[in-house]
Amino acid sequence: MNTHALQILHDTFGYQNFRGQQADIVECVATGNHAIVLMPTGGGKSLCYQIPALMRAGVTIVVSPLIALMDDQVANLQAAGVAAAAVHSGIPSEKLHAIAHDIRQGVLKLLYVAPERLVSERFVRFMHSIDIGLFAIDEAHCVSQWGHDFRPEYQQLGFLAHEFPHIPRMALTATADEETRADIRHYLQLQDAQTFVSSFDRPNIFYQVIEKNNGKKQLLQFIKSQGHQVSGIVYCLSRKRVEEVALLLQENGFNAIPYHAGLDMAVRTRHQKQFSQEDNVIVVATVAFGMGIDKPDVRFVAHLDMPKSIEHFYQESGRAGRDGLPAISWLCYGLNDWVLLRQRIQDGEASSMQKQIELQKVDAVLSLCETATCRRQLLLAQFDEVSEPCGHCDNCLETPVRFDATELVQKLLSCVYRLKQNCATSYVIDVLRGKDSDWVRRLGHDKLSTFNIGADLSDKEWRSVVRQCVAGGLLSVNLSHNQALQLTEASKAVLKGEQQLWLRPLKRDKKAVLSAPKT
Ligand code: ADP
Ligand code: ZN
């Protein structure tokens, strides 16, 4: 162990020991090697470049995508007595001159820069005129279209390898799926880098996923079960819903505040501060809230709507329990969420390849919701991490016993077939359940052989069958055609009776766990 590193950890940052792989990473970079660091949020990535920055001669250039993050880091470093600065559009030009002066004098140890500035000709010229100790590229997943915060400028950062071949480079991120990793290696020219992968498990977080029937009511029930003495975050998909839910919680006596990009900057800043500094505050937010939030005692993160990727879900739910104490991730989902998310992607501006990627990601979330096996195992598999069932999620505590649903699924699939793959979920279910409506009669669907063959199941139960079929790839939803249910290649074997199908129970047990057992 490098005693110098340990001394800095202790004297400057006030910590006794390195965590996880921090010591190895510091050693690797401080001795001039390249590194890729994959560590979950809250794992302690910052020290991995801040300590080498203090060990090496010259200034360390840190690439960071968000001004708020930079300012935060700089403030923390200055408070610890480290000479650090940030350059971004909000910094007046006299200040920039002073910073350049400090760098030339060899006083400044860390300089935070946005990627678009770093790649500018002027800045490159400046970098050639100074002594640089290390390049640290934070939030390196921004380089990848697979990642959730794609920033095209990040892809240009590979030039550092050619222009500054003798300066070590490190990339840091909390997103670690294989595609993103490959992109980081490729675009940042880090083929020779040593890769450090930490476990992404957050053992103190209990995962619970429930089916939506009345989302707001279910949310309220969940939050009430947590008591009034906790801080939490509720994520919703739209601004309107954020406002509604914040109001609902306020009416029920909770100290709830809204946060979304449509609010005034001043209001947002005030609410963010309030959440960080006060106790027992619940923030109701869109995904705009969170990057750079480092509140240790968030006891729950609730998703009232389905997140658009497993990475989003992981990042957002990971804001719970940073202090290591028990915390809950609660997620409420419905087939409508899934359809809505897919529709948004379909209607969006992205290239068709990008859309395919995003659709796959949404589907993976549905699979996480529908799985009858350990949630954590599935989550960690997303980061290529192999694990045993955790014993600390809803499915582990009460493993859903699957039943043979072959006949039910056959009924559903043949009804979809008889309806010429032309009808949306609720209509298909109406026909299965023999609903006597004008529409059904006018279209002659009451004469179909599949009319009324599923009257023994409720609407909700059929929806569960549909969802599980969609998650299992037996049905697809045609977004360009009224969200009609359609058969897939895989459904043929089931229709022909060549394949048996086991589904999760259609009704969730009422006693589903609502508060996390103490770890
Ligand atoms: P990340 O960037 O990976 O999300 P941070 O670098 O912000 O994580 O670190 C998360 C928290 O953990 C910070 O409050 C930091 O001060 C603390 N921390 C990091 N390393 C250590 C350590 N070795 N000992 C104690 N606390 C640490
Ligand atoms: Zn589990």
UniProtKB/TrEMBL annotation:
GO molecular-function terms, A-Z: DNA helicase activity; hydrolase activity
Keywords annotated in UniProt: ATP-binding, DNA damage, DNA recombination, DNA repair, DNA-binding, Helicase, Hydrolase, Isomerase, Metal-binding, Nucleotide-binding, Zinc
Organism: Vitreoscilla stercoraria
CDD domains noted in UniProt: DEXHc_RecQ (cd17920), SF2_C_RecQ (cd18794)
Reaction(s) this enzyme catalyzes, per UniProt: Couples ATP hydrolysis with the unwinding of duplex DNA by translocating in the 3'-5' direction
Name this protein carries in UniProt: DNA helicase RecQ
NCBIfam families cross-referenced by the UniProt entry: recQ, recQ_fam
Family per similarity comment: Belongs to the helicase family. RecQ subfamily.
Lineage summary: Bacteria, Pseudomonadati, Pseudomonadota, Betaproteobacteria, Neisseriales
Span of domain Helicase ATP-binding: 26-194
Pfam family for this entry, one: Helicase_C
Top-level EC class: isomerase
Chain ranges of the Helicase C-terminal domain: 215-365
EC number: 5.6.2.4
